[in-house]
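Form 7-S
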Amino acid sequence: MRLLRGFWKILVGVKDALVLIFMLLFFGGLYALMSVTPKPVTAGSGALVIDLDGRLVEQPAQPGTLDALTGGGPESREYRLRDVIRALHAAAKDSSVKAVVLDLNNFSGGGQATLAAAAKALDKVRAANKPVLAYATGYSDDSYQLAAHASEVWVDPFGAVLLTGPGGSNLYYKGLLDKIGVETKVYRVGEFKSAVEPYTRTDQSPEARAANQALVDALWATWQADVIRARPRARLAAYIAAPEQAIASAGGDIATAALKAGLVDKVGDSVAFGKRVAQLAGDADDREAGDYKAIPLDSWLAANPEASSGQIGVLTIAGEIVDGEAAPGRAGGDTIAKLLLDELAKDRIKALVVRVDSPGGSVTASERIREAIMEAKRKKLPVVVSMGTYAASGGYWVSTPADVIFAEPATVTGSIGVFGLLPNFSGTLAKVGLTSDGVKTTPLSGEPDLMRGTSPEFDRLMQAGIDNIYRRFTGLVAQSRKLPVARVNEIGQGRVWAGSTALGLRLVDKTGGLEDAIAEAARRAKVAPEDARPLFIERNASFLSWLLAGMVQGEEAAEPRDVYTRVARAPERQMLRAFHDLKAMAEGPVIQVRCLECPLGDAPSPRTRSGFVELLLARLGF
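Output:
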């Protein structure tokens, strides 16, 4: 029997080894296929189709293994801004691209500064005398900000252009917390650190209202100015002020109202739009009504991989700043610091551009990143910061080493303040008949005591810590911006500013995007303009991460295409975002440098099947 058992174990071992070898061969072969660069798009191939079926972001979130198993990960597909810009810049010069199609039917938005950067790339295509055609059933603020830069804007006969502007209501939790007996202990510096007000008030404070109104007014003015520059003949102001009058004058036809106001150029369905594109780019080989020769964005990106071998290092800090390691989409302090320090050790870059698109987060992680950037300065490298949609609080903290700071007019920045939150559940426990008691050896034993409430000694310690961090923050800003500390305190105190206003306050030096920052860094490093190419300091995507992304990134449930349903769903997303912020506050560090006016993410959306096959085909050039 022992002989038989031993023989059986040998057979099982051989079987397991064969299975393992087969799996290694399979995935190795698949990886080899993925490593083969598809043939570049040939001349006469048609229109480049920018089908933004999701969000436009600085850095897409990378799903983990658990996301692949549970269907988690990003709520909708995320398109990297620099990929879209790179494709548009190439389209402007490539004779095989006859036109650019901007499909915004399922576009779910992006940050205002992010969209402005993409819009500038669309302008370059038009400057090259190439047509840009935009189509959607309905346009809201985000989608119209892009569409306005097209040479032809189409809307479906059943569609509309509904422009609402930034603003709206926020949730305040004080009343709910009172009902369940939770007291929130707040530690903060600054009149405008309104991140904590939902936990301590039932409405906005006058200071927060004034600051928030000034912010949205500045952002809205920037949005309107951008659209008016792109479409000077559009009667934008009148349409925004009295849309019901514009609709009435068009006989109740909402799409026609947008046409008469000059917001769109054509009213037609997708078939009519496709026929128009076919006139410019050519008919598809297997022609159906409305088909045209198309170059999908995914196929173009797969066939034209990004070159990253320049002398100007570009370090991206995107998403919430967190302690430790983090995948793309969140800024892990240790992850980003290690990436930069490893690159600096190679001595191959001559200047550093730090691209910031973050609302902040952990103080310690922000300082970890700042210290790594300071190492670049110790090596005498010019450091230039390029701010995206958000560079507030911790996002501004990591920007302080910069020699020069670029921001977009719609960048949300500042928020120079610190806060801490701790709950006290003694009231909640009392409601159900529970109490707590214990002993101490020092005034800080068992602190923070969330069951009975924090002690006065602990409160004084926490507030002293907050005050010290705020002094450190304002000191860094004063040194970086060459401003008196008293002046930094005036414009600090947690207040959030639009980039256009921050320029006048000397919180930023110039307006411009990433390309402008790279050019400035090259100039300071005495690198010739023709050699001013970026080297992106980031982790190379592994085969496993690509595989997981394909498993997670499915076909989301289709976004409603009529603009009214999208606007009506805004409160639902707002509620989900509020819960998301609550979760982030609860799970994050007690002391934070974070801008709560800058949302961390979007409301979840349902998913259907996996997009793995679609991604594989796109990668192979099909």
